[in-house]
Each structure stands twice: as C-alpha cells, then as structure tokens.
Amino acid sequence: MSDKLKIYPVINFSDEQEQLLEVATNFCRNRWPNERIRQQIKDEDSIDAYVWQEIVELGWPGVAIPEEYGGSGLDLAEVVTLVEPMGQYLLASPLVSTTVVAQALIVAGTDNQKSHLLPAICEGSVASQALSEPHGDWDLLNLNCKAEREHGKLSLSGTKNLITDAHVADIILVSVIFEGEPALVMVAKEDIPQSSIRRETIIDETRRSYRLCLDGIAVPVDNLLRQEDTIKALNRIELVSCLLHTAEICGANNAAINTVVEYLNTRKQFGRFIGSYQALKHPTVQCLQEYEAARSLLYYAASVFENEHEGEVAVRMAKAQAGMAFSFIADRAIQFHGGFGFTYECDAQLYRRRAIWHESQFGDGNYHRQKLAELLL
Amino acid sequence: MSDKLKIYPVINFSDEQEQLLEVATNFCRNRWPNERIRQQIKDEDSIDAYVWQEIVELGWPGVAIPEEYGGSGLDLAEVVTLVEPMGQYLLASPLVSTTVVAQALIVAGTDNQKSHLLPAICEGSVASQALSEPHGDWDLLNLNCKAEREHGKLSLSGTKNLITDAHVADIILVSVIFEGEPALVMVAKEDIPQSSIRRETIIDETRRSYRLCLDGIAVPVDNLLRQEDTIKALNRIELVSCLLHTAEICGANNAAINTVVEYLNTRKQFGRFIGSYQALKHPTVQCLQEYEAARSLLYYAASVFENEHEGEVAVRMAKAQAGMAFSFIADRAIQFHGGFGFTYECDAQLYRRRAIWHESQFGDGNYHRQKLAELLL
Amino acid sequence: MNKTDNELDDFRYEVRDWLEKNRPKKPDFLMPQSFMEVGTDEQFHYLREWQQKVYEAGFLGMAWPREYGGGGRSQILQDIATQEMKVGKFPFMINAIGVSWAGPLILNMGTEEDKRKYIKGILSAEDIWCQGFSEPDHGSDLGNVQLKAERDGDDYILTGSKIWTTLGNYAKYMILLARTNPKIENKYAGLSYFLSPMKIQGVDPVPIQKLTGEYGFCQTYFDGVRIPASCLIGGEGNGWRVAIQTLQYERNAEGGAAGGPTSEIPYVHEVIDVARKIKRDGKPAIENPHIRDQAIKFLITEVACRANLVRDEIPSLVIERPQSLSMSLKGYGCDFWQKMQEFAMSLQGQSAAYYVGDDLAVAGGRWHRAYFNSFSTTIGGGTTEIQRNIVGERILGLPKS
Amino acid sequence: MNKTDNELDDFRYEVRDWLEKNRPKKPDFLMPQSFMEVGTDEQFHYLREWQQKVYEAGFLGMAWPREYGGGGRSQILQDIATQEMKVGKFPFMINAIGVSWAGPLILNMGTEEDKRKYIKGILSAEDIWCQGFSEPDHGSDLGNVQLKAERDGDDYILTGSKIWTTLGNYAKYMILLARTNPKIENKYAGLSYFLSPMKIQGVDPVPIQKLTGEYGFCQTYFDGVRIPASCLIGGEGNGWRVAIQTLQYERNAEGGAAGGPTSEIPYVHEVIDVARKIKRDGKPAIENPHIRDQAIKFLITEVACRANLVRDEIPSLVIERPQSLSMSLKGYGCDFWQKMQEFAMSLQGQSAAYYVGDDLAVAGGRWHRAYFNSFSTTIGGGTTEIQRNIVGERILGLPKS
Fold it and tell me: Using only C-alpha atoms, what is the Rg of chain B?
C-alpha cells in the first residue's frame, strides 16, 4: 500500500524547454507590458490578433502536435515553458485552450478530424472548449447538454458556460450526452449564430468568457469524436488543463511576488522601508517558499506527465499547491500594499482576481486533495 | 435549519463564582509554586495529601453536589472557577475526576449509592473513573470490558486504561457491558488487588495514570448504577469532563502566555529584547487572542451548561477552541524560548506535554468539530 | 435609570415591532455592505433616508443629551435597538463617521456652540461627516501628517491632500488632522484637529476606484482652503491627543457612539446557506467534509467573538488584562471576517469564476465583493499588523518593534 | 569522470547489495533519531561501529581526496550511496559534525598537516567532532561570542563556556569560535576559529537534559584551557569568515560533505501507516476525512521538498533567484517536518496520552519524541525566524529588520 507513497520526483528539462522558456519570457516581456494588461481589461476582445499571429508564426500552437499534422512533435512539457511566462505577464492568448482541444483530438479524433483540424490549429485556428454547465460541478461527466440525430445532422441542446474566448474561436469542442453516453462534438464558428453566444462577467477581467446556448445549433454527424474514447479524452482534457493552468499560475505567482517585493522595498512607514518589518517580510518569504514548491512540482509534473498514475498524481499535487500558493500571495499582496492595495490601480487585484479564477477551473486544492486521497491512500 | 446557527452567547457570572475564582487563584498560587510542580513530577504520587485535605476543608469536592447529600448545591459553573486556577498553577488534585464521578452518580446512582457515596465525596473520598480501553476510541460506548453475575456478585473482566489517580482513589467508576448493554459499576479500593493496578507512562508527567486489569475482581451487585440511565450518565460524564478540562486548559494556557511574555521581555538577541521582533511578538498576540476566545467560550459554556443542545454545543466549541489555542501557545513557547526551550528545565515542555494530554482526553478539536457539524449543520 | 428585565424586554419588542413595520423595501440596485462602500447616488439617498427615519423614531442617539437632539435615555436601550437592527439585518447608518467618531468627540470636547451646531445634523444624517486622517504618503503613520493649516488672522489656510475619505463627495464636514506647526521638533506637537467644512471653495474630493471596480473613497485635495479658527477643536497643537481620543471611539466600537449598525455584518450561517445551495460532486457543498470542518471552525470563532464582547462586560473575568478583549476586537474580528468571506467565495467551486453582474454569480457576487471590501477593515484604521503591535505592546507589555 | 547511466545503475545495485548484506541488527534499545540525540553509550557505540563499517566499505568520503583517507571517486557515486542509505533507512553517520562541517572546512582551509591529521579519523568515526559556536547568553547571535582565547606564547588560553555541544562528552575535537581580541571595535574582527582538542585538562562537557527527558547535548566549560596556536584555522581575527563558511556547508547540506545520512528522516508514508493502525470512531483514522486531507497536504509538501532539491540542480530553472531553493531548505523543510511530526502525534487520539516507555505508546512513543526533538532543527543552527530573515534579505533583497 505504502509503496505508491514513496515518490522520488524526477525533473527532466530538455534543451528545447530551456530555449523555449527563454524565448517565451522575452516575447511576453516585450509584447505585454503593464499598460497592455490594463488595455486588455478594457478591450471587448482580450486577445490581441497581432500577438496571436506572432505566436502562430513561432509555431507554438503546434508544439505538442505530432509532426505528421504539421506540429513540432514535442511534449506538453515544452508547452509548459511557453505558458508559464504568459502567466507571469498576464498575456492573454488562446494557446492553452487551443492546445487542450488539440490534445483531445489526438486522443479521440477521427482520422478525418485529425488530418483537417490539427494542421489548421498549427496554422493559427483558435480552438476552445465548452465543457462546463451552470450546475457548477467540476465533474466533466455531469452533463445535461444533449446531441440528437435529426435530419442527418446532430442537433444540440442545453447551455454551456465558462467558455474562454468563444467569440473568436474557430472551433469549439462541446461535451454532450449522445445516445445516453457522454460524447464530444466539434462545433465550427459558422454553425453558431451570434445570438447564441453571450459574454459573461467573470472575476478575472483579463480574460473573456462566454455562455453558449446550444438550442437550435446543428452540426454534421462527422463532427462527433470517436465516442468510445470520450472518457479517455475528457480525462486527458482535465489533466492537460490542470498542467497548463498550473504553469500559468506559477508564472503569475512569481509576478505577484515581484510586485510585493518591489513595494516593500519602496514604501516607507514610520521612517523605515516596510520590507524591514518582520510582520511583512516573513509572510512574504513564506509566499516565496510556497511558490518555489509549486514550481518544482510543476516541472516534476511536466516531466512525468505521460506516465500513468504518477503523471496524474504529480499534476494534481502541482495544481493544489500552486492554487494555494497563488491565493496566499495574492491575498497578502493586497494587504501588504496597504491603502494602495485597496485600489483598482494597484496590480494586487489583478493577481487576486486571477487566483480566484484559477481555483474555480478544473478543481481547487480541496478537490485535488480528495482525488489524491483516492489515488494514494 | 439555520436558526440553531444563530448563537448569541450569554455569560452569567455569579458572586459565588467571583469569590471562588479569587480564593482558588490565591490558594493555588500559594500552595503550588514552580518548585512544587517539579517535585510533583518526581513524586510517585502526584497528589499532595495535605493540599487535598485543605481542598476538602474548603468544601470544593461538594460544590456541585446537592445540599441534601452534604454539598453546596451550586452549579458546575462554580467548579469551573476552581479548576481554572488549578490549571494555571498545574496543581495536581483529583477534584475533576471526583466531580465527574459525583455527577454520574447524581444522574444514574441508586438512592442507596447516592446517600452513601455523595456525602463521602463531600468529606474527601477520592473518586476516579475507568472508562477508556486500550483500543483508544473516544466513544465511551465502545466497550469490551464485561460484568457478569456470578455467585451473587458481579464478576468483572477486561482491561481499563488511562485511569487518573487510580492508586489513591477510594472508589472507581467502571464502564462495562452487562447483560449485553452498557453499564456503570462502582468499584471500591478494597476490592482491587494491588497487582491489578499498574502505573502508565504518560506524556504529562504532572499526572499519574494507571491501567486496571479487571480480571478476578468481583463486586456486590448493588454497586451497579441504574442501568437504564447509563447512556445519560455517560453523556453527562463526557460533557462535564469536557467542561472541566477546558477550564484546566484555559488556566494552563494563560500561564503559558505569561511564561512566554516574561522570556520575550528578558532575553536579548542582537542587542534587542527578543519581544521587540514582530516574528515573535505577533504570533504571541495571536496566541493571546485564541486564548481569550477560548476563555470566553468556557464561561459561556459554564453559563448555559444545563441547557440541552446549547450546553453541548457551547462545551464542544469551548473544548475545540481551548485545545487548539493551548497546543498553539505551548508549541510556540518551546520555539520562542530558543535553546532554553529545548531543555527539560524550561517550563515550556510542561505546557506542551499537558496540551498533548488534554487533546488526548475526551476528544480533540477535530473530534468535537465533527460532533458540532452533526449538531449544527 | 435601572430597568427591570421586563421593561427591557418590552422595549425590545417595541423596537422590533417598529422595525418590522418600517423595513425599507428591498432596493433594485446593489447595496453597499458598509458605509465605506457607498458609490452611487441611489445608494446614498436610500441609506440617508433610512437613518433619518430611525432617528425620527427615536432609535438613534438615544443616550445622547436631549438638548442637542439626542434622546436623553439610557445606553442599554440604545444597545437593544442597535442589536435589533443588526440581528434583523436592517440597513446600516450611513453617517457612520458622524455617529461613531465626530459626534462622541464633539460631545466630549466640543464647545457648547459646536454641540448645538453639529449633533442633530449628525443623527438625522442631514449633515454627512467624513474623516481626514490618512495622507497618500504615510497611511498608518498619523504622526507624520503633512497637510498644512497656516494661521492667517481669524482663519486657517489648508493646503495638501487627504486620502481614503469615505463619503468625501457627499460630506458636509470633515474631522481633519492637520499640521499647524511644521517647525516644532516634536512632530506630534505640530498637529491640530479641525471640524472642517467640505462644501467650500478649494476643497476637491476625487473618487478613487476600489479593487472591486466600484467607488466609495475619495482623495480630497485642499488648495488654499480658508476656514475660520473656530473650527479648531481641542486647541492648537493638541491634534495628536484629539486624534488618539477619536481612534479610541472607533476601537472601543460602541463606546460613546450614537448607535445603529454601521455595516452589514456577515454571519457564518449565511455562508453555510451558500454551501447548502452550491453543488460539489453532485451533492450540496455542505456535505463535503472539508467544508463542514471549515464552517464549524468559523462558527466557533464567530461565537467566540460575541462571547468576548459579553465577557468584556464582566470586570472580574478580564481582571488580568483589562483592555485585552476590547483592543483585540478589530484585529481578531476583521481577520476572521476576511477569512470567512474568502471561504464563502472559495466554496463556490466553479461558480466562483463569476462576479457581480453575472446572473450565475452566487448571491449576485456578494461574497467576492465582501471579501475584497474586507481589506478596508484589515488595512484602514490601522492595519492588522499594527493592531498586533498595539496589543503586543500595550496588553502584553512587549517592547516596541 | 562522466559515468554512463548504466554504470551508475550498476553502482547503485552494488551499494544496495552491500547495505542489505551488512544491515546492522536491530538494537534492543531505543535508537536516537539524529546525531543530536545520542544520549547513551550503547547508542554511541552502535552508531560509531556502523559509520566505521560504511567507511571501510568505501561508501563514505568517496569524493574526498584519497591521500587523506577519502575515496578519490566522483561525487555522484557518493550521492547515490547516500541516497541508498537514506531510502533503505540505514543508521545515520554519528560523526555528523565531522563529515558535514569540520571535514569540508579542513579540506578547504586547513593546512596539509591538518588534513593528514584529521580527515581519516573523521571518516572512520575514530575521532568524534563537536561544535562550539553558541553560548548560553547569545544563542543565535554568533557575532557576540564571548569565550576568551588569550594568546600566551605559542598557546592560547581558553576561558568561558559553549552550549548545545552535541556529543560533547564523546568528542575528541571541537570546531570552536572564540574571541581573541575583546577590545577591537568591529566585534566580528575579534573572533578566531580553532580546531580544539576536547580530552584535555580544563574542558568539562556537562550533559543537558532535553525537553524529551533524555540527553544528547552538553554545556562545555573551558577553565583556563591551554591549546597550541597551531589549532587556529583561517588565521587570527578571521573567525567570523570561517564560521560563515562553515554554516554554508550546513545550509547547502550536501555541499562538500563526506556523505551518508546524518539523521533518520521521517517520511509521510510512515505517518500514514500510523493512521491506518489507529482507530477513530471504530474505524482506521486514515478514513477520517480531516486526517486524509492533512495527510495529503503533508505528502504534497514532502514531494515538493524533494522536487526542490532536484530542480535546484537545473540552472535554468533557478535562474531568477539562484540561491532561493538552497537557502530555504532548512527553514521550509524543518518547519514542515515539525508540523508533520506534530500531526503524527495528534492523530493518535486517546493513545497520544502515552509516552516513550509505555507498551501502549504508538510506535514506542517515537512520534512524540520526534516532534519534541524537531525543535532542535527549528531552533538550532539559526531559528526558523532567522532563516526567514536571511531568505528575505538575501533572496528577496528586502531591507534588514
């Protein structure tokens, strides 16, 4: 029993990862300065088409797509090194959602779907996924939305919510019940009437989230992914999402630490820099340490991601730790900025809002610890 | 549903309580200076017969025993004010165990038992209880020990553990299974062979605890308490014990805070009194606040103790909070004393050991929170 | 003035009855959760009307002297009325700075003229008050206040700015700490305290956007503002002492306050109600063992906070550290509320992604907003960290940091 | 010296094989959990014999120079051997101060004569070393060391006392920080560092009883002890620099250490095993949701601590704060272990009442003792609080407290 508790983590960090991490960090720093973040909050569209075009030209959407479909054939570990700096600079891009959809297609797409959609993704098609429903349950199998065969097409019904960047997505992967069992269906942009899609008000203002009313939408039957692999695909979606979200969280966590440290080194109270007070210094050190732990788990998870059991354990550990660490620093960031922290102008709120959003997606710490208890105890 | 969650605590503090608190505080301070605590650790017998005699003369064992049996007919709230200072000065006395047995007799004793044993307790008989068994479960109904009718007597069997002061107790209240149901039996000192009783090594060295092998012990059938009231009596025992333990914990918690504060105000490091460092000052303030919260809950619990439901809720809240607060300060007391805290000579270990012991008795915070969830959610 | 328990009970029913009969209709706009969060005119007018109504019914300022507009009755009656308003979740008193700070201060240290001029307007919410202590560059460090008040004949000329002026754009008066003597070595002796008009030339309150995205505070600029010397309270150079006195009113909460709630107090049972409605793994979140355990922890602390207030009234139960409970009130309580509100938000699971304005936001996003706004209590009026210093030094006698 | 993975694996199996064949028989007495807890002769001899055996088998000091008694092999082999000893839960190296502190220091800064004289005895555990930094009146404040070392011809005369001398009563040598110049204004410049003999006239190590009730530390008195000036290392007046250097060896743990574990490392899975055996409400404690959740939290931190060590070896993954992981090792890890051991104790429910010596004590009271002893790691060698200062100042660049 205890044997699976004896975890000796291995971290492999390839030359590709090293290069991509450096390139992506520079890219995000240059393209996404603080003013840009504030602009992105105001824009209807949080994604910058020019920046996305650059990302496509860099080949990042295809990093983990096999070469036969036009990708680079690398691992998700390489995608992690791209997403982490995006988190750090709060750069909005559909890279995560697009990668997740590609991974689902690799697992459960038909040959036809793979040979059409994967190359398109490599060339810049934006993909998103519609998995959640208003009941709010994280269980991806808790589905009320339906697909039914009608006039040789699949007629969809029900409501999906929390769909990232749905309005610019070329394809959306939708989970439904079809013939009594879970299924995944690709819905193309042109099949969705504008009136079916509605912007949501979410806590993280640097993102755009939409609700999609499926009623009246019909798609070709060929858009169905191989139904027998649905559960496998949904598992993959959950774990890939957790891995990439964790990368994003770690990046943002690092930025939040830097924001706090800069303030502690600038602001004076009672004639001393406030960073000299242990009441602020020590919790900040604890935040740093929790972040470092999360980042180590992230790269461990990235390294063993494809190993059954160990990969899942590592990813869930990483997400649980990263979520906790980021919430902790973001909460303290508001407090330690004092009155300024209470303003919209201070970046602390950006991090705190983002931390809340991340905890709401694909399970919070409590949820993953429960899953880990099932896996390990 | 929510209505029982709207708790507006009332604290009644009678003139008797006020007087007893003052008298008991002075008594403990005079009788039980620090040297005496260290002596009590070395003594085979942790109870001081002379001090107990004084306690008896002050009438404290009978405080909550009805006047018809020779007591003062006051409430357990008054006993709380006696026990709290005993906790503060770590004064060893069998007042708690004796009071608990008296309360059980009031609930489930036969007229004959009450008219014999209660006056004896008022006059100084030491009583203890044997409720635990080596399985370690806090559930007082999880019983393996047995009583069987044999030759007109009750023949006992099995092992009881964690019996406080068993070697000096005149009577021990023992829980057993009798005729398939839980029962309580009084066992007199003279019925227990010396060889059946063995001292245990417990974490709190200021106390004495014993294991009792019941095999071969037989007592008169009249020693059985009214069996139909056993569950009621066990409930009463649990709640009275929790209340009085909480009082003891609060007293000790206060002493631990004073010990820490004194050291922080005396010890210098890097040219400053260590109490000036926020890394030590702020956690100490948090310890103080958790203690104050515990003490407020204690006196609330004492005030409403006899109210069904509210009394149980208040007592469990008080025990959970007090146990947590005391463990917290006692742990930090070791740390904040630095190297000295690591020695046997430093009082920090006395408090830490006591905190561990208290958490082991009648349920820790986690246990009481579970019970509260059942009562309230 | 000792009342029997029966008389008190009768009074309690009288209040409860009036309150229920006069409960204001539920507004169709989002309500602020404390007086620090009033960001729109409709919120402002709604709350001001309610305070006026409560005052006219005789349930506010009940223990303040009758000659200035108070009720001249006993404090215990006010306490009962206040409690009924809190428990019944009635709107709070918008003129909180007036009823809790400026009013007690004026009654305590003001001239006869001050009392006649200000007290009634404070109670009726006719005259809204704001507070001018903090400045942009030294939030918690009041001794360092820099806003200049230069004597010029019978007037003072004010130059500088104040920050976190709650209701600054609605207020008629400000309690203002300013520097009358910039040269004196003892910086505290250079401070003076004013009851200063807001609706005059040169005073410019500019709303600040809060982290919630809403408004409620101002930065107030003073550009050569001329006010009469009679605005001074406590005498020139005594500002520090008066400010400390004012802060005592706040820290002792109900001290000499006129009564009434000044914020919506979130209760743990409301959080538990959220947990009953939210689903996790197909079951109500309240069945999740971790959430149950957390909920009970918060409940214990909530009851303990209330029990602290009750015990604080019994001298022989606070004999060893007489100020311990009252001085910990803010630090311990605000920290608890903040964590509780964070918990209320986090237990929403996936739905926690929504914010105020989305129809899927749990309770309209109330808990997110409450959590964000809670930082005004852990930062404003002395941060939690500073509160710990104060308790450590004054209650435990630890050396200064 | 680059080894192929196959060669490394072969070596790992060789070590594992030797270890299993030579595992010392389980003692019939209570074993100490780290070198700081050796309180009896039987413990001492048992552990000394084991270290000697490991050394003779070639699995200790493998990367130290062959000419002084080391193995002259590569560090990676030593790391593998050390890991095998840890994972297999073999006894730790009793001469920890020697292998982790004194040895690296001597190799680094000692004279050729020092190296020939001391290194082999360190590895074989023939010569036990102890450490003399802390003094009774200024625990963490090493700059304030007062023990006097007065020059007298070719000798120094030592007067004063040191505290927390682990193995003081067994040690042959002490690394000693002493004050050679009490008059100099810069207090650091008045310090010097000695490799000082213990078994000579005037040195009196007196055992200190620990909070566990056991022994393991001494207070060591120096009453006019005469030692030759050749004991000096680093030169007179350079003691501070040498001491800082020594502390680096400790903080970087495996730095230049000879290898081998120096304490028994408690694993979370052992705590979980306890939770499987203990009953709560008639069921194994591990089924209690709160205990499950706690266990998983500890497990996550345990894996994270290990992953930190692994990541620290990859330069491009620590590029932003290069020392962050290594400098946090002690503070973060020791705090975690302490809480984990406290948890292991608390989950025992009623049985937590028992202590070492009672047959009902869970695992013979191991977890209580481990928790108590854990304070030697959160206090000794710089308290957790001081570790946080160091990380805050050196890694985050925050100003000094």
Answer: 21
Interface contact flag, A134 C360, Cβ < 8 Å: yes
Distance from the D339 Cα atom to the nearest Cα atom in chain C, whole angstroms: 19
pLDDT at position A1 is: 47
* CATH code 1.20.140.10 region(s) in chain D: 268-395
Task: Please name the residue of chain C whose CA is at the shortest distance from the CA of residue A369.
Answer: C290
Residues 6+ apart with CB under 8 A from B238: B140, B362
* Residue D279 in contact with partner chain B when CB distance is under 8 A: yes
Question: What SS3 state is found at B83?
Answer: helix
**Residue owning tokens 């098609």:** A125
B279 interface with A at CB cutoff 8 Å? yes
Angstrom distance (rounded) from CA D184 to CA D180: 10
Q: Which residues of chain A have pLDDT under 70?
A: 1-2
Mean pLDDT for the stretch of residues B134-146: 94
Closest among D392, D401, D293 to D347, alpha carbons compared: D293
Q: Where in chain D is the domain with CATH 2.40.110.10?
A: 130-250
Which sequence spans correspond to the domains of chain A?
Answer: 15-125, 128-227, 231-376
- C104 vs C254: CA distance, rounded Å: 10
Name the CATH superfamily housing domain D268-395.
Answer: Butyryl-CoA Dehydrogenase, subunit A, domain 3 (1.20.140.10)
As a CATH number, domain A15-125 is: 1.10.540.10
Residues in chain B closer than 8 A to A282 (CB atoms): 278-279
Interface contact A295-D311, CB threshold 8 A: yes
10 Å CB burial of residue C117 (0-12, 13-18, 19+) is: middle
Using CA atoms of A238, A240, A246, A247 in order, give the dihedral in degrees to the nearest 10.
-160
Tell whether D133 lies on the interface with B, counting CB pairs under 8 A: no
Please state, in angstroms and rounded to a whole number, the distance separating the CA atoms of residues A355 and A337: 17
Question: Given the DSSP bridges, would you call strands B197-199 and B159-164 parallel, antiparallel or unpaired?
Answer: unpaired
Q: Are D200 and D225 in contact (CB under 8 A)?
A: yes
The correct CATH number of A128-227 out of 2.60.120.260, 1.10.10.10, 1.20.120.140, 2.40.110.10 is 2.40.110.10
| Cross-strand pairs, D275 | none
What is B231-376's CATH number? 1.20.140.10
Taking only the tens place, the pLDDT of each residue in C20-46 is: 999 999 898 888 888 888 888 999 999
| Each residue's pLDDT tens digit, B252-303 | 999 999 999 999 999 998 889 999 999 999 999 999 999 999 999 999 999 9
Q: What stretch of H or E contains B272? A: strand B272-273
Nearest residue to D94 via CA among D263, D251, D216, D247: D263
Residues in contact with A35: Cβ distance below 8 Å, sequence separation at least 6, in sequence order: none
Dihedral angle at the C-alpha atoms of B76, B80, B82, B86, nearest 10 degrees? Answer: 140
Domain C130-250 has CATH 2.40.110.10: yes
- Cβ of B201 and D209 within 8 Å? no
The two three-digit tokens of residue A73, written as one number: 């054939």
Alpha-helical runs (H) found in C57-111: 75-87, 96, 103-109
Report the pLDDT value the prediction gives residue C1, as an integer from 0 to 100.
Answer: 45
User: Rounded to whole angstroms, how far apart are CA atoms C263 and D63?
Assistant: 68
What are the tens digits of pLDDT across the range A320-339? 999 999 999 999 999 999 99
pLDDT for res C252: 53
pLDDT above 50 (res B1): no
- Would the ipTM clear 0.90, i.e. be above it? yes
A276: closest chain B residue by CA: B278
Distance CA D272, CA A281 (A): 34
DSSP C21-68: HHPPPPPSSPPPSBGGG--SHHHHHHHHHHHHHHHHTT-SSTTS-GGG
Please indicate if any CB of chain B lies within 8 Å of the CB of C215: no
